[in-house]
Design brief:
The chain is of the alpha/beta class and about 350 residues long. It has a domain of about 200 residues: Ribonuclease Z/Hydroxyacylglutathione hydrolase-like (Metallo-beta-lactamase, Chain A, 4-Layer Sandwich). It contains eleven helices and 13 strands.
């Protein structure tokens, strides 16, 4: 397996494309942004591979910085594009699906209390992005959790890890022949990143209880004890279990901050909490910031720490009494899943 790093204008940093070039087939995991076609072609040529050689493309999720080139590559090579069944409709960019998705997103932004001017700014930004970065893949083939695929002597096992999107996956790596090192490795997409925490709540409007789903995915990665994680952005993760624990702790710190905000200012809607957390936001950050606030408030409501009436959240009295000024964290309930 070869890691190809492609520059990315977004905050997560350079995208990773993973190349498997065997005697019988050539496979990519993720493709990078549409605007990086020349860079990807050059990188493939460095490995003596052309676009026409590509047989299959596996996508970790539908976002355009990971799937942006899938349509172009498929058109040139005839490659099969594979993606989790939950993300397939958005990867195909089906018009009806996108209309429904956009309507859901708009409804949520309104219910979160995002001002009309901010919503207008966000959708103007998105319309500009869609022209360049949301191409349609003509045909996709779906997979589900636990399915396996053999590439040469390498076996990919799909691990469904929702949270960042409904159909986000990781690919656990194994070998059909004996691996003398015994190393357990996994391609993590955006589920686990080395520098940033992936956005939860804003980057897929279809998800209910997104933080609950994401924390469960992190718990799986923590318990699985992989030796190396190959992320969707930046450099490999030497200790995926430790990184999963760090991200869980990050979300517990954010939950603590939100409860402190509600203690200080009283009942508030999502946008008010968002601005208290992140200050003034513009463009795409309006969506991801509000989504983060929403995901945490919904999780806190689910575990009985806050109450919501008509979009306004308040911390319950027992929680306010238990807040510790010396600690900025609050425990979050996490559902277990099998390893």
């Amino acid at each position: 397996m070869e890691r190809i790093s492609l520059e990315n204008d977004e905050l997560e940093g350079a995208n990773n494309v993973y190349l498997f070039d065997t005697a019988t087939e050539t496979v990519l995991i993720d493709t990078g942004e549409q605007s990086r076609e020349s860079a990807l072609r050059a990188a493939l040529e460095n490995h003596e591979v052309t676009v026409a050689d590509i047989d299959e493309i596996f996508l970790t999720h539908w976002h355009p910085d990971h799937s942006g080139l899938a349509g172009v590559l498929q058109e040139t090579s005839g490659a099969t594009v594979r993606i989790h069944e939950c993300d397939a409709p958005l990867a195909r960019a089906d018009e009806e699906v996108w209309e429904s998705y956009t309507s859901t997103q708009q409804s949520r932004l309104e219910s979160w209390g995002v001002p009309a001017a901010k919503r207008q700014q966000l959708f103007a930004h998105r319309e500009r992005a869609e022209v360049a970065e949301y191409p349609s893949v003509s045909s996709v083939t779906t997979f589900g959790d636990g399915e396996t695929f053999t590439i040469g002597d390498q076996i990919l096992e799909v691990r469904h890890t929702p949270g960042h999107t409904a159909g986000s996956v990781c690919f656990a790596l194994g070998r059909s022949t004996t691996d003398a090192t015994g190393r357990r490795e996994i391609i993590t997409g955006d589920t686990l990143l080395p520098n940033y925490t992936p956005n939860i709540g804003g980057t897929d409007a279809r998800l209910d209880q997104p933080l609950d789903q994401y924390l469960s995915s992190l718990r799986y990665l923590e318990a699985a004890e992989y030796d190396c994680g190959w992320p969707g952005h930046r450099t490999p993760i030497a200790n995926p279990s430790n990184r999963a624990r760090q991200i869980i702790a990050h979300h517990e710190q954010r939950a603590g901050r939100i409860l402190s905000i509600l203690d200080r200012i009283g009942p508030a809607d999502v946008w008010t909490v968002c601005t208290e957390l992140f200050g003034g936001l513009d463009g795409f950050h309006i969506l991801v910031g509000a989504g983060e606030a929403y995901a945490h408030l919904e999780h806190l409501q689910q575990q009985g720490d806050v109450e919501s009436v008509d979009g306004t959240y308040r911390a319950v009295d027992e929680v306010l009494a238990a807040l510790d000024s010396d600690s900025d964290t609050w425990p979050l309930a996490i559902g277990d899943r099998s390893v």
